[in-house]
Amino acid sequence: MFEKTFKDFNINFNVLNENNTFSSGELVTGQVSFELSKPTKIRAITICLTGKADVHWSSGSGKNKRTYYAKIDLLNLKSVILQEGAVGRETIVPPGRHVYPFSCQLPHGNFPSSFRGPHGQVLYNLTVGIDRPWHVTKDYVTQMNFVHHVDSNQPELMASLSGSNSMSVCSLSCTSGQITMTASIEKKGFLRGETIRIFCDFGNASSRTVTPKAKLKQKQKYFSREGIQRRLFVKNLDSVTGLPISAHSSETNAEMLLNIPADSTLTISNCSLLQVHYEIELSLCLRASPNLIMLFPIVLCDLPLHPHYLGLLSHYYTDSQSGWCKLINGGGGCKYPEDTPSHCGRVLHCCSLGVGDKRENFFKIMPSTVQSLMVTYNNDSEKNAFTNGDTVTGQVTLEVTKDFKAESLYVKFKGKAEVLWTERHGQTTVTYHSKDKYFSITHYFIRDEYATADDQSLLTNQYGQTYGNLLATGTHVFPFTFQFPLQEMPSSFTGSVGKIVYLLETKLNRSMRIRTKDTIKIPFVTQVVPTMMQEIMTPQHDSKDKKLHLLNSGTVAMDVKIEKSGFIQGEGLKVVATIQNNSTREIKPKYCIYRKHSFFARGKRRLDTKDLLKDVGDPIPPSASQTVERVITIPHDLEPSILNCSILKAEYRVRVYLDVKYASDPEIKFPILILGALTAPTVAASLPSTESDFGPFGYQNPTAWGTFSQPQSYDPPPPYEAYGMYPSLMDNGGKP
């Protein structure tokens, strides 16, 4: 009956990505569509999104057969698409085609990816229920492909894995020789469909022929609810067999490739009932003897769709100091893991060697060829920062443990500004990002042989010779020299969502290896140019009065002056204020220096303000007039003002206000420019000489200050907007 009434029932999702997957925190949207053959009474159309994990297996037989089963609910969300009419009446839906949109927000959480195995599964279902009077509720179920995203570009997963192992081969009661194996893979984290490259060195000093083999295995582990019982299922995803290595052969180099199936399940380690792990098994196989085996556990990741990284496998296998490499070989006196296949021999842990065991170095991490790579610069003891035109000298120090060939080695000097923040708008997270690049200069010590000479600056040693790409064991020092460009650039800066950095970066590239690099930041302070001196030395003044009401009566007024607009780190800022208190209460002058950081991206502005210094003057009694002075010392570690960057600004204000009880405080704000201490000599050399006809603030023939209702006899300084250095004084983001 239902199929006759409801025809062509479909549940369609709006595609979020090319893989049609969902993850935590995302909004699931779609449509429920069907066709009615006649008018139909419907109480409700409901939607339910569920997630669950369950495992089941049996062991034994006959009377000893035991069945294990466990289940956990991951999520359960319900919503209503169509509700019954008023006063409990059913809704009569006319015949024809009907489409009902729906949306459901997946919660944020650490949920495992969808999975289906022989003894368990992780399922996420969307169920649409049709509730009709005098009918059993009809449910339509469709599965969702849920993915727990893991960023494969995390440093922990980009680190290479390497290991070495050896074993003595015995013939009856005599030793016939030793076989050795050293191998490495580029990284720990891989994507589905990616190819794994294994770099191997084999040695066969025995009298038998050995064959190298590599396998990619998927290990599925199922646990009972108490975690006491477990079931292991191992599946081979790919394998490759190398060329046989004849007896008494010297060291043989080989590269073996394993392909990860594109439909493989991601690594699952965040479910209490089941886990899915992957490992590479590399072995040397020979007849009538246990195989020599090494295991490299890897993590199967997804594309980095989310910036956050949820840690995986930190407890899996051995600790991180052992390089995540587990070795297996034949022999006695060692422990057996429960999940080791019988043909693989025995698992040897790094501390389980028995007394008298003649095999050496069963578990060791192959020492890295590059012990260290470090870039440093020579810092002048008289100054802590550089400015325009300064020369930067330094060296790249490379320490290696054995001879190797380098593809390229270079040092880069660059400056850049960057802002990045996110905002939540309803159900959508918007990322705002912008970047400015000021310069980038690269000097090569060792140049890539495939690169042209025109696009690279090649350095030479002290004898005028180029550096060779064959580097011997020991420590190598490569000196370099750079110069800061004379162009206009902002000072170094670090803010809440933005930064301006100048840094040195060195990179070493080797064939079939992950590149090695090191960076160091260089502090930079903008040089004061002569055109800025007028703005720096311009004095500022303003006046304000206020009439009091309600609990106060009378008026208060103030006239405030500062001698200039630019101040060096550690310098004193002198504020002179003439205050008239014609009210019935005493008032206190207060001072505050605060900073204002502005960040710009995609036409959006983000503001960050903070009070840096506060000071309070002596009270002024009622019906009194006083001229007060206050010197506020600029902190030595205060970052210089930044007004010459297009994506961020660092500004400072001095605020003078009167603390009046039971009334809003009248205030005056002055924008000020903070200069780095490195620019002090330049500023001092540009200062005009003091003449006798100038007052303490640089005004010529200043007049006495009168009442606030009359204008001053001298003209005020030009507005700062005319110079384009400062934004409007009222543009303070709502901060007092």
What descriptive keywords fit this protein?
736 residues, mainly beta, Immunoglobulin-like, 7-stranded mixed β-sheet, 41 strands, 50% strand, flat
In short:
The chain has 736 residues and is mostly beta strands. It is 3% helix and 50% strand.
Question: How would you characterize the overall build of this protein?
Answer:
By secondary structure, the chain is mainly β. The chain has four domains: 143 residues, Immunoglobulin-like; 193 residues, Immunoglobulin-like (Sandwich); 152 residues, Sandwich (Immunoglobulin-like), CATH 2.60.40; 193 residues, Immunoglobulin-like, CATH 2.60.40. The chain has four helices and 41 strands. The strands form ten sheets. Strands 13, 15, 16, 18, 19, 20 and 21 form a seven-stranded mixed sheet that branches. Strands 25, 26, 27, 30, 31 and 32 form a six-stranded mixed sheet that branches. Strand 30 and strand 31 form a beta hairpin. The chain is flat, with a radius of gyration of 37 Å. The relative contact order is 0.08. The C terminus is likely disordered.
SSE class: mainly beta
Uncertain regions spanning at least 5 consecutive residues: 305-366, 689-736
Which architecture of the largest domain per CATH?
A: Sandwich
Instruction: Tally the structural domains.
Output: 4
The largest pleated sheet is described as: 7 strands, mixed
Mean pLDDT: 79
CATH fold-level name of the largest domain: Immunoglobulin-like
Rg estimate, integer Å: 37 Å
Tertiary shape: flat
Oligomer: single chain
As a percent range, the share of helical residues equals: under 10%
Q: What is the beta-strand fraction?
A: over 45%
Q: Identify the CATH class of the largest domain.
A: Mainly Beta
- End-to-end separation: 72 Å
Beta-strand segment tally: 41
- Give the count of helical stretches: 4
